[in-house]
Specification:
Length: 137
């Protein structure tokens, strides 16, 4: 097997597309015409898409479970983690774009990184981090 992407299944496709492209600044690199599907470049030198987004309702049609609802208001079940050159600067930049954070940048010494967390519009947990050794340079 070869890894292709993590695909977020979203209810409000347009709102999430705006969040990932306009707020986080991800480059959309692949779209399926006629479908609410977008893939983003999230890693240098990675041949696959890395992160993609697809309409939950469209996926439910393929799976035959359109009668079921998506969970909300629950504890996070997954997290998308992105390394950034300077988590504090990224935090400040995103704050200016109206991104709401769960916490402020904090040293997580046990994991060797400085981290901050936020949710996307559909409550998917996102972690931004910088390795502590990079922060101290």
């Amino acid at each position: 097997m070869k890894f292709c992407n993590v695909r977020l299944l979203v209810k409000d496709y347009q709102k999430c597309l705006e969040f990932y492209t306009q707020k986080l600044g991800f480059e959309a690199v692949y779209k399926i015409d006629g479908m609410e599907y977008e893939a983003f470049k999230v890693a240098e030198g990675f041949a696959g898409e890395g992160l993609a987004m697809f309409s939950s309702d469209a996926m439910a049609q393929f799976l035959g479970n359109a009668d079921k609802t998506q969970p909300s208001g629950c504890r996070e079940k997954l997290m998308i983690s992105f390394e950034t050159e300077n988590v504090d600067e990224t935090y400040e930049t995103l704050l200016k774009k109206g991104v709401k954070f769960i916490n402020q940048p904090t040293d997580w010494t046990g994991a060797g990184m400085r981290v901050v967390h936020l949710h996307d519009p559909e409550e998917n947990l996102i972690e931004l981090y910088t390795p502590l050794e990079t922060c101290k340079k």
